[in-house]
Amino acid sequence: MNKRQLQGIKVIVFCACLVPLAWAAIRAFGIGSTSLGPNPVQELLHSMGKTGLNMLLITLAVTPVRQLTGLNWLIRLRRMLGQFAFFYVAVHLLVYALLDLRLAWDTLAVDITQRPYITVGMLAIVALIPLSVTSTNAMQRRLGRKWKRLHQLIYPIAVLGVVHYYWQTRGEESAALTYTFAVAVMLGYRLVQAAELRAKRKRAAQGVPHQTLNPP
Ligand code: HEM
Prior knowledge:
Layout: H1 3-28, H2 40-69, H3 78-100, H4 105-114, H5 116-133, H6 137-143, H7 145-151, H8 154-169, H9 174-213
Bound molecules: protoporphyrin IX containing FE.
The site of protoporphyrin IX containing FE has 20 residues, from helix 2, helix 3, helix 5 and helix 8.
């Protein structure tokens, strides 16, 4: 894949990521015969929350899909996908605070402290902030090895996102179970991979003294 093709794919993915926002705006303004239904704020809250969660899971899927298919250029899309995940979750929070609660900060504080699914959602979005802020090349260079460790937070964040969803639907929606299954598969894949890497390093470390004892 050359630079121009990659640029083209990036533009297409960028436009595709904007579709849920554009569709929500079209329905909010009632363009054509569309609408957000009888409870527009709730509908907006739900669609932005779902899109945020979908984007989080798509971001998580990039590495396994790249490794299994050999499509290495996929990694060049991960940052954009992650930023869109943060964007949609932030819009979801804004819809809740601005349109649902009408900036009733005391109610928001009560919700965060007393409604467990909101506490969990808040934890997830707060944890996403450092990932979003440090996603530039400059920050990656500056943080060095710490960057990778920091960005592994994406796994617990996805788990919190799914718990947030599962908790409010009490697992009654099949979609909540599907999300739980998807996160479990991706987490399992990474854990197996980490275990294999550790075993490989251990074998290599055991090989070093053996080689020094028997020089060629
Ligand atoms: C990474 C962070 C978050 C993710 C991925 C996320 C995702 C979701 C999803 C998928 C839904 C369900 C949508 C549906 O039923 O179709 C939802 C609902 C909701 N979320 Fe979040 N959310 C996050 C953070 C937050 C935060 C920080 C708040 C508020 C402080 C919040 C408040 C709500 C509320 C009030 C609902 C609707 C509950 C209901 O229908 O009764 N979420 N969220």
